[in-house]
Design a protein that fits this description.
By secondary structure, the chain is mainly α. Helices cover about 75% and strands about 0% of the residues. It has a two-stranded antiparallel ribbon with strand order 1-2. α1 runs antiparallel to α2. The longest helix has about 40 residues.
Length: about 475
């Protein structure tokens, strides 16, 4: 039905467009009056008034149609319907599913309830049909009224161009408002749930505690009932993996950008840059598989072999430790994450380096500097603010990564600077806490929102710092 309505609207708008354009064109050809706007603006104004009000009515009906039917039928359930919850809700759900061509659930109903269910489904189907017909009539009426109003405005002195530009401006404002309101909604929902969590757990304990075990006791004598919501181990693990990732991505990505911008020929650049940016299109779960199945076992074999060589010598303890290294470690997750970030760093840095004016390079060459000296003494200092901003944006990306860490670093919350240890991060714990059926009324589940708020604050701060660096140190070149 919705598709049919959209086709009818498109056809009606097209007809109004052509009629309005022809009417204004005839007035212009007659030469009696001078047009304020070109015919296409008059036609576009008429088509907008014919389509937009009808589309608004269609959107309202699409959003509110099903709740209206549910509300009417839920308030008048048959007497034979189950008398208690959750069976009454399941009865209503099964009737709606049957009315829309689906299949009822496996709940066993009595003979009277089965007949009542069939009758209720038929009533819902009837109401759905009436709502669809009424909605079609409302949409067509809105289109007709809008088109009639627009037709009365089709005259030579009407400022159609101004009106159409007003429509465009309103559309752009609406898109901006949706983006802003979405951001506000995300922040407010995060703040609300985090405040509920901090009513149970002290923010000081959360931010400075060193024991992370988000468990809530059911009984006072339950074993391991103390729990712990100190997030410092999570912050340490996140920072450790981020540092390893940036130590991998920053030099490789920056050197790749320098080569592409300063040394590569157009043919080499045409081949190397797309192949490098293919890494950006690989899903992070694939990087996680690569870390868990390839990089992790390779690193374990290498460290175990090195440990076997050290056992029995002056570094016996180190050898025993290396022989016990497992697949999951911070080093594996950090290196694979760094590989994932290479195209991010290289693309941004390449654009920034290419933005440095060629006149600076020419001036350096005129002074007798070589290409490498020009890059070190002129190009990189000029591009440094932008490169620094790109690095901070890459740090934000590394902090928010989840799948690679989940599959390659483990789930152990510990405070360590050893890259060979298994650690966990803030994002991994958020996924762990919100996996499965959860009750959003316990500190264990709500702690995920506290972690999300902390992560949001850190990434927001990093983005603000990156923008400030670019704005403060940006140099303008003539």
């Amino acid at each position: 039905m919705t598709g049919l309505i959209l086709i009818l609207l498109a056809g009606f708008s097209a007809v109004i467009f052509q009629l309005a354009r022809a009417r204004v064109a005839r007035a212009a050809a007659a030469g009696h009056e001078r047009l304020h706007s070109r015919p296409r603006y008059h036609a576009a104004h008429a088509a907008l008034w014919a389509a937009v009000p009808a589309l608004l009515v269609l959107c309202v009906l699409s959003v509110a149609g099903t709740p209206i039917v549910t509300g009417i039928t839920w308030a008048d359930l048959p007497e034979a319907a189950p008398a208690t919850e959750p069976f009454r809700s399941q009865f209503q759900y099964d009737a709606e599913a049957m009315a829309r061509g689906g299949v009822a659930s496996t709940v066993v109903y009595s003979e009277d309830q089965r007949q009542a269910l069939t009758d209720h489904a038929a009533r819902i189907q009837t109401l759905d049909g009436r709502l669809r017909v009424g909605g079609l009539a409302a949409v067509l009426l809105a289109a007709a009224l809008g088109g009639l109003y627009a037709w009365t405005r089709v005259r030579s002195d009407f400022r159609a161009r101004n009106a159409v530009e007003g429509w465009v401006g309103f559309l752009l404002f609406a898109c901006s408002a949706v983006a802003v309101l979405t951001t506000v909604g995300i922040v407010m929902s995060l703040l609300w749930e985090s405040l509920r969590f901090f009513q149970t757990v002290s923010p000081i304990e959360f931010l400075t505690g060193t024991h992370w075990s988000p468990q809530i006791a059911i009984r006072s004598d339950q074993v391991g009932s103390t729990g712990g919501f100190g997030a410092v181990p999570l912050f340490v693990g996140t920072f450790l993996i981020m540092v390893i990732a940036m130590l991998t991505a920053a030099p490789i990505g920056l050197m790749a950008a320098i080569h592409l911008a300063e040394y590569a020929s157009p043919i080499q650049r045409a081949w190397i840059k797309p192949m490098l940016e293919v890494l950006a299109g690989i899903p992070t779960v694939v990087y996680g598989f690569f870390a868990a199945l390839t990089v992790g076992p390779a690193f374990r074999s290498a460290f175990n072999g090195l440990g076997a060589l050290l056992v029995g010598g002056p570094f016996n303890d180190l050898g025993l430790y290396l022989m016990g290294v497992q697949n999951q470690m911070a080093l594996v997750a950090g290196i694979v994450m760094g590989i994932m970030l290479i195209p991010f760093v290289s693309s941004l840095s390449d654009d920034i380096i290419n933005a440095v004016p060629q006149s600076l390079r020419d001036g350096s060459y005129a002074m007798g500097a070589t290409r490498s000296e020009t890059i070190k003494k002129v190009v990189l200092p000029a591009a440094l603010p932008g490169v620094a901003g790109a690095m901070l944006l890459a740090v934000s990306r590394a902090i928010g990564e989840t799948m690679i860490v989940t599959m390659a670093a483990g789930l152990q919350a510990r405070i360590t600077a050893n890259p060979l240890d298994s650690v966990t991060t803030v994002t991994v714990q958020i996924v762990t806490l919100l996996t499965g059926d959860q009750e959003f009324d316990s500190p264990k589940t709500l702690s995920a929102f506290g972690l999300g708020l902390a992560l949001f604050g850190v990434t927001l701060l990093l983005n603000i710092v990156a923008l400030r660096i670019v704005q403060h140190y940006r140099e303008q070149y003539d």
